[in-house]
Amino acid sequence: MSIATQVRYNNLMSSFVIDGLAGKKTLKGSIPVYGAKNAVLPTMAAALLIKGETVIDNVPGIADVHVLAQIIEKLGGFVSRDGSRLTVNARDITGSVIDHTLAKTLRASIVLTGPLLARLGSVTFPHPGGDLIGERPIDLFMAGFKTLGAEVTETGETYTISAPSGLTGGDFFFSTVSVTGTETLMMAAVLAKGTVVLRNAAMEPEVVALADFLKSAGARIDGAGTPTIVIKPVSLVEPPPYSVIPDRIEAATFLALGALAAEELVVEHIAPHHLDAVVDVLLRMGVPITMSNDRITVRAPEKLVPVRVRTHEYPGFPTDAHPPIMVLLTQAVGESVMIESIFDGRLKYTEELVRMGADITAISPHRARVVGKSQLMGADIDTPDIRAGLAFMLAAIAADGKSKIGGAHLIDRGYEKIENRLSAVGVQIARID
Ligand code: EPU
Asked: What is the dihedral of CA 63, 390, 111, 137, to 10 degrees?
């Protein structure tokens, strides 16, 4: 059965109700981390470069995967799911117009533009939607496509990129480091007629994973994981089954949970070396951590030490791990600083943490001062985005009293069955409609 017909629409009105631990540190057990949202989405897009079948394992059951699958099916592809295995058949991709409504719900839909342009010579799409975390322009994508010989036309909110006789080689410098920008141009470049060099490229593990996937299908890519990526022309073949890397943001969130409220929490099925910057912050805060091959064990300390955290492109501290770590800062004794250097709207959610009793002052759109330790109190909150949603859940777990967190569908975009995993380690949580 195709995935589009299997899609379970999440109830837009559902919420999570959490009974707080009132500061007690009683969570205990193991919590598994699933495949990375931000790795599986570009891999699904890359499958469109291949005239055949791509099998992807360790795929999380999250709403964003369903939405991207629906978009791919509207383009003539076929996506099926069997447990955590997803198969994308892109033999008959003919559509070059990305569904407007679906693309508006998913910023990551932009990654489809690279493969569609490379494969069909044209792509039409709206300015993609996504989280409310600040301005998210697409100027770098456009400039990159132009460097590869494409023509860009813009009608209102719709863009058409065309390169009827194929993309050319080229040398492109990203004036701002962009993760999906790097991924999209890397995919577009694989089928170009000449060598493409991407400079000041993103170095995130998801970029490296995408290059590894493309290489498994025959692509010639050097330098992924460094600022300069070189892509040589080639034609692709069906790759062997590919397994999605663990979600480092989910892992960071669970580590923050352990540091906040666990007697002992084992965060498992992870790649610890993707989490160096997060582990560094936790160690500086005085959190006891034990690392092994594919797991990290974490305990909540007696007292958390205040720190200065600055989000940064990889290998720096990830912006998506900022909201859960912010909750931890509210529990540190003394003054901490959070500098959000990537997104100018990301600090907005802290207003809700203040409502729960946190002492957070946004000094600018990029800097907040946090004074702790605060006793958080349960509250009714609606989440504006995936990552703020998890921060609210963490705050609700530490708080005194009951909290209701609305917008569960946003949390479902990035976290599979979060309530089951949290309740298995002792969180009192229920989903209600
Ligand atoms: N930017 C531009 N022009 C562009 C593209 C980006 O100015 O054409 C700017 C952005 O405004 C931002 C900065 O560049 O200030 C970095 O944004 P980037 O393009 O790297 O973000 P993204 O690729 O759209 C991905 C993740 C985000 C994550 C960021 C940063 C995916 C699907 N999304 O977004 O994940 O926050 O990188 O690491 O990979 C999330 O998962 O919740 C999420 C928002």
From this structure: 130
Q: Determine if the peptide bond prior to 315 is cis (ω within 30°).
A: yes
Residue 187 · residue 45 · CB < 8 Å: yes
Strands (E), 305-410: 308-310, 334-339, 359-364, 367-372, 380-382, 402-406
**What phi-psi label fits residue 203: left (phi over 0), alpha (psi between -120 and 50 degrees) or beta?**
alpha
Q: Which helix (H) or strand (E) holds 227?
A: none
Task: Using the mean position of ligand 1's atoms as its centre, give its distance from the Cα of residue 85 in Å.
Answer: 27
- The strands making up 85-89's β-sheet, listed across from edge to edge, are 78-82, 85-89, 53-57, 242-243
Three-state DSSP class for residue 368: strand
pTM: 0.96
Is the CA virtual torsion 291, 339, 386, 331 positive or negative? positive
The residues, any chain, with a CB within 8 Å of residue 155's CB and separated by 6 or more, are none
Inter-axis angle of helices 276-284 and 248-261, nearest 10? 10
3: pLDDT strictly greater than 60: no
Query: What type of residue sits at position 183?
Result: E
Of the candidates 26, 15, 21, the one whose C-alpha atom is nearest the C-alpha of residue 397 is 21
Tokens of 79: 């996506």
Helix (H) or strand (E) holding 31: strand 27-32
**Residues linked to residue 15 through DSSP beta bridges, in sequence order:** 406, 432
* CB neighbours of residue 105 within 10 Å: 16
- With DSSP H G I counted as helix, E B as strand and the rest as coil, what are the percentages for the chain, rounded to 5? 35, 25, 35
Rounded to whole angstroms, how far apart are CA atoms 401 and 21? Answer: 8
Q: Which tens digit of pLDDT belongs to each residue from 340-363?
A: 999 988 999 999 999 999 999 999
In the three-class reduction of DSSP (H, G, I as helix; E, B as strand; rest coil), residue 331 is classed as coil
* Ligand 1 site residues, Cβ closer than 6 angstroms: 37-38, 41, 107-108, 131, 135-141, 176, 178-181, 319-320, 342-343, 386-387, 414
Distance 374 CA to ligand 1 centre (A): 32
